[in-house]
Amino acid sequence: MLKTSDQDVQRVFTRRALVLAGGKLALIGALGARLYYLQVVEADRYELLSRDNQFNLELLPPIRGRILDRNDVALADNQDNFRVEIVREQTDDVAATLSALRSIIEVPDWDVRRVLKDVKRKRAFVPVTVVENLTREEIARVAVNAPYLPGIRIEVGRSRRYPFADTAVHITGYVAAVSESELTGDPVLELPDFRIGKSGIEKLHDLEMRGTAGRRQVEVNALGRIIRKLPGEDGEPGRDIRLSLDINLQRYATERLARGQAERLPTEDPRAQLALTQADSALRDAYADRATVLVDADGKVVEAESGSAVVMDVHTGELRALASAPGYDPNPFNRGLSAKDWEELLANPRAPLNNKAVAGQYPPGSTFKMLVMLAALESGLAGQDTKFFCPGHLELGDTRFHCWKKYGHGWLDMKQSVAQSCDVYYYELAKRIGIDRISSIAKRFGLGDETGVDLPGERRGLIPTREWKLATQGVPWQMGETLVSAIGQGFTLTTPLQLALMTARLVNGGKAVTPHIEKQSGPPGAVEDMAIDTRHLDAVRAAMSEVVNGERGTARKIQGEKDDVKIAGKTGTAQVRRITMADRLSGAYKNEKPWRYRDHALFVGFGPVEAPRYAVSVVVEHGGGGSSMAAPIAADILREALRIDPPRQPGPTAAAHGSSGDSAEAVRDRPERDG
Amino acid sequence: MVMSFRSDGLNPPELTIGQKLVSMNWLLVLLIITIAGVGCLMLYSAANGDWTPWAYRHALRFGIGLTVMLAIALVDIRFWMRTAYLGYMVALVLLGLVEIMGEIGMGAQRWIDLGVFQLQPSEVMKIALVLALARYFNGLTYEEVGNPLNLILPLLMVAMPALLVLKQPDLGTALMMIAGSGAIFFLAGVRIWKFLAVIFAGVGAVPIVWQFLREYQQKRILTFLNPESDPLGSGYHILQSKIALGSGGIFGKGFLKGSQSHLNFLPEKQTDFIFTMLAEEFGMVGASALIGLYVLVLAYGFAIAVRSRSQFGRLVALGVTTTLFLYLFINVAMVMGLIPVVGVPLPMISYGGTAMLTMMIGLGLLLGVSVHRDVRIARAGVEED
After folding, report:
1. Are strands A67-68 and A241-242 parallel, antiparallel or unpaired?
2. Which of A425, A595, A645, B364 is most exposed, with minimal Cβ within 10 Å?
3. What is the ipTM metric for this complex?
4. pTM as predicted
């Protein structure tokens, strides 16, 4: 019985064991099916997800293009930025490592505190920068001591460098971190150390100079730690921008402009010390950390002049120098300027951020007279021999228009009117030819509109016309305004670049060159001829030469020695504030005025006289008189330009003077440039 | 007690150790060693190609486990029958101890620290329960099994440890115990309608049980239903595991080349998710091969059970086999996103001492049943005459 029941039990067991085995097989079959689904059917999808997991795309910032001057000197380049980083997980004691590091290189307390705070916040394998911008020598010291500095590592990045600091800042501009509003969705812009151009060439050519970023796949683990770097596509470095600028001339012009009439003395010089003790405290503070002091002829400390100097190749429009003073150092922008420093730059009354050469607008004053002369000659209403009598003023209705020379110039011809800068002569000319001819020729010579120079931020200036007056003021043009316009006052506004352009077009044979700062590749294109009678242009050049080389010329002081290159030009003094009758009677307008009410000093010139090569314009803001302040600066800059780069092929006129000392000397100076 | 010889020779005399060793199912032993070898290989890979910290210790533990397994197989099966209830009681007390210790203030604790190793009573209980139930059902006639009164005691035997384990809380182990015991009940001949009744009652109880589940358990079930809704939160593990599996493809990424595993996207790759790693590195081919090895072990289990002359041996053999199957199925189904993450290791492959020991003891018993297949056992451990 037991046996039968046992057999029953066994039978039931076997039957049910088969059922159970079947069930298990079915479930394992389900596992197999699932496996098939995941690894075959959906494999591609998961493969993709796995790659996404595994690889992060790392962008390699491209090397930004450099800015070079005409001789390939870098005005903006990229410097290796050595920095020391610490990785928490590689050291047992961050503080101990840091103090060991401090015995080798200098680490400010502030940085130590920041690092100690940062390492706690970041993940253990994320490096924290300790110090940046280390010298190679400092890096070498750290590298040698590496065994005693667990967790310390040296990394090298790149940062923008402007070797000439404030000398060419208005041309190069600067780069700075990308701001929120500048993000375009390009991931490169989101890299923490990516910089973009914010002004000048850096801004204008930003996209070309950026280049294209390289991409590299980085294998990461679930925590984001980089496991492996895979080769990727290299980026393309940005394009170098080559300028027509000569940094040596630029540097000379900037310094010469800033110096003005003063003398630059080392601070230790007894005269400088004496001057500093007598200076007011604000000025003393300003010079507190400078190595040199500007001392004027009276032995007084003076501030550096502000203004602009432009040197242009008259035949090509190439800009050789474009100085704007004061400048500012673009280097700190790279790392981020403090709000305080930025406020100071903005609040400075001398506007260092402003590129005065293209954005400073000044009445041209007497530098405008050549255009009126040319307009008169071209109109046929006056000739070179047309004479007027200057009694010191001209009456129009019940208004008296004064000449700068109180008791008048007497009888003058056209050449002498320029040489002596007689205002009355130009009132008379203006009365004859009218405002329309004046403004028309001014516009043809590049005033009152953008010159089209390849720099951002250019201002138009203003050449008033009847239509303009009616449209903007709602009042018809007055004859008096014609007279004022004829001496470059009133509504008229020009930029230093426009004045240089005007001069270039006057002396290059009436060719409508356009100014540019980027070096043109290939031969210069054909330049439009302005169809001005060359005899008239010759007359203008002769008159401008008379200003410097004539016995009574307003700039005869800059004639130089017999061996110096012969140059020509025109002085200008632009009134900032109208001289009232009361001022005139009291004579107070000639006395010391607050800086911001002083006249602007202007000079436009060219050289050599016989074969014009460079045009120069100088504007010294509130610099007083054109002849006393601007002319010597312009002469020095012009002669420096000609010394650096003398005429390559002596022109027909220059050939006559080929044996003259200056030319030969110049050739000796830089023989390699004359080949 | 005198042993009698059957005329048909089916109940052999006491076997010597040598005879037992000869009749040992060495092919099954080889299969088990192969599976453990795969485990070592995968743990070597999990440590990025290093024998430490896992593979080396895994091999060591398996060596100990193998010895224990063979020793158990050689011990007369009737000894295990006699000590089945005692073993069960000890395991139950230990489970209770863990529970009490847990309440004293250590949170969810599942093990007892014995100094040398950490004993997980719930693992011990899996085997102890199989033995105890097998002993209970051994000798019961089909009619006796049909009597509901006779089911009260075994039900209690299952319910007590299951509830204790559930309280730990360890849902996976509790479900494994219930499912494994259910299989024994089923094999012992409990009527089908009773199972159906229990299943219906169980489904009806789901809403009630739901409320008793801890929040993390509820969350696990919910994220299982839609893991990709929260890829960085609780669904992360399942999603990453599926990515690893799927990206392995048919032939896998190669040994030591599983990017998901080696870059730590895969959680717990040395324990619960080791199958994923294998499937990532060796693809569907490798994963199927491993499952195939397990199926072979299961088939041996089935064959051994059917060939055993005692109900005890049969129930132990299939009880152990079912436990192995449940480990395998729950683990693999979990990492493939078929069932919620319940934290069940892959036997003999996952790193972890207790689970391996449990399985080796179980397999020792299975081999023991095989060695002693012709021993007939009457009720209460008395040999039948």
Report:
1. parallel
2. A595
3. 0.89
4. 0.62
